[in-house]
Each structure stands twice: as structure tokens, then as C-alpha cells.
Design goal:
With about 180 residues, the chain is an alpha+beta fold. About 30% of the residues lie in helices and about 25% in strands. It has a 4-stranded antiparallel beta sheet with strand order 4-5-6-7, covered by helices on one side. A hairpin with a 4-residue loop joins strand 6 and strand 7 (about 170-175). Helix 3 (about 75-100) packs across helix 4 (about 110-120). The longest helix is centred in the middle third of the chain and has 23 residues, at about 75-100. The chain is globular and about 55 Å long. The protein starts with 6 loop residues before the first helix and ends with a strand.
Length: about 180
């Protein structure tokens, strides 16, 4: 347990955040409450809400390297912000690879895009589609349950999120 003001230093990229789980807890949390929290984390199902069991906690994040992200938050804008950032990172890494550059500046989609996805389905998987200097397509498929390592991308995507690099805009369209 550490002060949340230290979180940016903790996640500064100097080490891999493999199997990272973050939960905010009150500053006066007791050792017994932390033991109870560890028990709940170890026994909760993948799709069960966790925060309702934790009183004042507002955020639960669990990430497995770059494969999984589970996020539950009492702040409704946070899941959409994280999903927008993940899509931005995927598009940026594709553009950086295409340009053979160490990084690429990419605008995040507006909140409407991830909010629409989250309102449509709770579980999504995304893979790169066509990538050019002008457009980056991310093929998105809604899943009936959380994706697991080893599961293939479904045969058909549901939607495509496309970044127009020149104009710095994102759009979402049904998969054709």
C-alpha cells in the first residue's frame, strides 16, 4: 500500500506492470481490512462487481501486461477514458512502426466513441485493420464474455474505429 500521489512514479514505465492490480482504499485502512480485500480479490469471479464490497473504494483496475484490462470505477468517465487511451496507444504504435519512429503523436477519440462502445457491450476486443500514413483502422468485436489469452479474434468484427491522421479525428462505422 502506498500514497496515490506516488502512483505516477510507480507507473513511469521503468518496469513491466505484469499482473498489476490497483484498488484505492481509505488512508486509514486496517491490516484486517487489507486481509479481507485480498480474500475478496482471490475469490471473486471475473465478471462480478467488486467495488460494492469495498465501501469507500472508487477504482479497481486489473491488467495483465498488454492483453487484459478489467476496470470498475464509481466515476463513470474513467472506463471510457481508459478505453480511449488504449485505442490511442494501439493506433500510435501502428503509426510509429509504419514510420519506423520511436513514437507518434495521436489524438485520443472524443468521449463519445468509448462511451458508445461501453453502452453497446461490456466486453470488446480490438485488432489493427488497415494502417496507412493517413488512416488507422481498429477492428472491434463485442464478445459475450471476457476475452482470454488464446482466444482468436472472431471471424467478423462488429465495428471499425478509424483515425484520420491528417485531420486528427476518429469515426466509428459498422464493419462491412
Amino acid at each position: 500500500m502506498f500514497d496515490r500521489d506516488l502512483l505516477p512514479r510507480f507507473l513511469d514505465g521503468t518496469w513491466a506492470a505484469y499482473e498489476l492490480t490497483l484498488i484505492d482504499v481509505p488512508a486509514d485502512v486496517t491490516a484486517e481490512q487489507l486481509d479481507e480485500l485480498a480474500l475478496v480479490l482471490g475469490t471473486i469471479g471475473i465478471d462480478e462487481p467488486l467495488l460494492s464490497r469495498l465501501g469507500e473504494s472508487r477504482v479497481w483496475f486489473s491488467g495483465h501486461d498488454d492483453c487484459y484490462v478489467f476496470l470498475e470505477a464509481r466515476e463513470p468517465a474513467l472506463p471510457a477514458a481508459v478505453l480511449a487511451r488504449l485505442m490511442t496507444l494501439l493506433a500510435g504504435s501502428a503509426l510509429a512502426e509504419l514510420a519506423e519512429a520511436p513514437c507518434s503523436r495521436v489524438p485520443e477519440p472524443g468521449p463519445w466513441l468509448p462511451e458508445r462502445l461501453i453502452a453497446t457491450a461490456p466486453h470488446w476486443i480490438g485488432v489493427l485493420g488497415n494502417v496507412t500514413e493517413e488512416l488507422v483502422a481498429i477492428r472491434l468485436a463485442a464478445l459475450p464474455e471476457p476475452w482470454r489469452l488464446g482466444d482468436s479474434f472472431p471471424g467478423q468484427a462488429d465495428l471499425t474505429a478509424t483515425l484520420d491522421v491528417r485531420h486528427g479525428t476518429w469515426r466509428i462505422t459498422p464493419e462491412e
